[in-house]
Design brief:
This protein is an alpha/beta fold and 209 residues long. It folds into 2 domains: 8-94, Arc Repressor Mutant, subunit A, CATH 1.10.10; 104-208, Dinitrogenase iron-molybdenum cofactor biosynthesis domain (Nucleotidyltransferase, domain 5). The chain contains 6 helices and 12 strands. The protein has helices at 34-45, 50-57, 61-81, 158-164, 177-186, 198-208; strands at 8-10, 18-19, 29-33, 84-88, 92-94, 97-98, 111-118, 121-122, 131-138, 141-149, 169-171, 189-191. Strands 7, 8, 9, 10, 11 and 12 form a 6-stranded mixed β-sheet that branches. Strands 1-5-6 form a 3-stranded mixed β-sheet, with helices on one face. Helix 1 packs across helix 3 (61-81). The N and C termini lie far apart (46 Å).
Length: 209
Amino acid sequence: MPRPKRCRRICSYPAHWSFAPEDGACDETVLLMLDEYETIRLIDHEKMTQEECAAAMGVSRATVTSIYESARFKVADAIVNGKKLRITGGAYRIDDVPAASEVREKASGTVRIAVPYDDGQVGQHFGRAEQFWFCDVTEGVVRYSTVADTNGVSRVALVGFLRAAEVDTLLCCDIGENAQNALKAAGIQLVSGLTGSVEDAVRSYLDQK
């Protein structure tokens, strides 16, 4: 049995999650994992040595070298070949809280919806959500869904948690103004004031589109 991948510690979520060439000549997208992004940020931007980067991420120097080489190749591939670059999940931890590893990679052309989850119902308040129901929608049909724990992520980090899971739209009941502003900055559409089961909330949202 293969050894489980150790989660790499990152300091914060990126401020910018995707990049694309202005000419738009290539439709291919390079996926840069958050741990790969973190090595680029620490070594190339913060000017850390690989040893310092390894200590910051809680992994070995050899692991950092492997992650860094993969990250540099992906960035070079995007720049040289005019591909889009998108930062997404991976095996990471932020503030000692693991990522939503239960959520699979989002397919191209798919809209991902998240709903605070409380025993099948829409959670009453976004900031107190302990679980989210994620579903992927293509052409108005739910193709995939799963429930993922937030693992105690702080209220401040919830928006980053959703952005790392590649969420496009959040459906919820009650949400504060600061969280609304954070969602807007992250490019996540918000629909609030919803109650009932999570499936009914999603269906009602899709029927009104």
